[in-house]
Write a structure and sequence with these properties.
Elements (H helix, E strand, L loop, with lengths): L6 H17 L2 H9 L6 H9 L18 H13 L6 H15 L2 H12 L5 E4 L15 E5 L2 E12 L6 E8 L2 E7 L6 E7 L5 E12 L4 E2 L6 H36 L1 E2 L2 E2 L4 H27 L6 H29 L9 H12 L6 H12 L12
Parallel strand pairs: 1-4
Antiparallel strand pairs: 2-3, 3-7, 4-5, 5-8, 6-7, 9-10
Helix pairs in contact: 1-4, 4-7, 4-8, 5-6, 5-7, 7-8, 7-9, 7-10, 8-9, 9-10, 9-11
């Protein structure tokens, strides 16, 4: 397998890296977090002008035709900068669902605007008690004379309070369906808030919301397989985001150990701290290899092998995120927990990323289930 980037991929990585480094400083992030928008509209506009928002979108919809590798290059730098904008949830996850399930008219209506950064989407597929399983949704859609009536409540819709359209999962007679909902429609109420790690989200209340027939994505009751596939693509991108944040946390910790003096010497000379840094480096390298693996299989056809590799990647990345955040704080001491220092924000982000799209225990169980041998294929082993 060739792990070298093409000239286009290298140019993309350098463009995003330069943009985040020069524009998205820690002070810029704090200003965006404390603003009414909870993010930086100027930064989103700059990403759109540079074509970064078009990377995950198909070329026939004015996109870049990016694969999982291009998504990884973008998300790694956004993670390094702790960017608050919902690129993953809008451009990768939600737009991927529209590309997979939408009719030609729906795709043509939405995706060019999404590619240009003019329209943002959010996926409302989490409810209280569903525990990372969208097929357990209790939100219901009932067919009426000229469309559908939608009732229910969704939780923690990342980017939902600023989205132009919401993609809402609901149970119909035939199974799980996906609907495109205008957040300004009658009966829709968004309760926005900032998540503990920075990005904004909302809870969604749907009270007898009328849905036009043309706003059903795909066939009734046929959304689950597409949701699971696109969550795999989003999971791969999230591993890259966590990797960027881990690299930044590792770099901050290394610089601190070189600069902090104790007993007349940098504390980085103490062997026990060197051992801890070596452990962190090992976890970082392992997470890097799994993030690359996830990116390489993200756009493969749906299969048990793809699901198994993605579950393994999320498990390893989640465990590494937890270890890196804890170790970095311990090596820094009290300053590692302060709001004014960027490491504390990386630590919070890494812990929360480990719980999105399934935590490590969830994916370990999923991986184990995929390894089970069917009863008919089991062979007796002589002892």
């Amino acid at each position: 397998m060739d792990f070298n980037l093409s000239d286009e991929q290298q140019m993309l990585a350098e463009t995003v890296q330069r943009l985040v480094r020069d524009i998205y400083t820690f002070e810029h992030r704090l200003a965006g977090y404390q603003s009414d928008a909870g993010e930086s509209p100027e930064f989103w506009q700059q990403m759109a002008e540079l074509g970064i928002t078009s990377v995950p979108i198909a070329g026939r919809y004015e996109g870049f035709d990016g694969t999982g590798v291009e998504n990884m290059l973008v998300m790694k730098e956004l993670g390094r900068g702790l960017c608050l904008e919902p690129f993953l949830h809008s451009q990768i996850y939600a737009a991927g669902l529209v590309q997979q399930l939408g009719s030609p008219e729906q795709r043509q209506r939405l995706l060019p605007k999404v590619s240009a950064g003019e329209c943002r989407l959010a996926v409302a597929d989490e409810e209280a008690g569903t525990h990372y399983q969208p097929d357990q949704a209790r939100c219901r859609a009932v067919a009426c004379e000229r469309g559908w009536r939608l009732n229910g409540r969704k939780r923690v819709v990342i980017g939902g309070d600023s989205a132009h359209y919401l993609l809402v999962t609901a149970r119909t007679e035939d199974g799980l369906s996906l609907f495109m909902v205008d957040p300004d429609a009658e009966g829709v109420r968004r309760i926005g808030y900032a998540c503990v790690d920075g990005p904004r989200a909302c809870d969604l209340v749907l009270d007898d919301v009328y849905i036009e027939p043309d706003d059903l994505l795909g066939q009734p009751g046929r959304a689950l397989s597409a949701l699971q596939y696109q969550r795999g693509r989003a999971l791969a991108a999230q591993c890259a985001e966590a990797l960027g944040s881990m690299e930044a946390a590792f770099g901050l910790t290394l610089e601190y150990l070189k600069a902090r003096q104790q007993f007349g010497n940098p504390i980085g000379r103490f062997q026990v701290l060197q051992h801890r840094m070596a452990d962190m480096r090992g976890e970082l390298e392992l997470a890097t290899s799994m993030a690359v693996l996830a990116a390489c299989v993200a756009d493969d056809p749906d299969s048990e092998d793809r699901s198994r590799k993605l579950a393994a990647a999320k498990f390893i990345t989640a465990r590494a995120s937890q270890m890196m955040s804890e170790a970095a704080i311990q090596l820094h001491g009290g300053i590692g927990m302060t709001w004014e220092y960027v490491l504390a924000h990386h630590a919070k982000r890494l812990v929360m990323l480990a719980h999105q799209f399934g935590d490590d225990d969830f994916h370990l169980s999923h991986y184990s289930a995929l390894l089970e041998i069917p009863a008919g294929n089991q062979q007796s082993v002589a002892v």
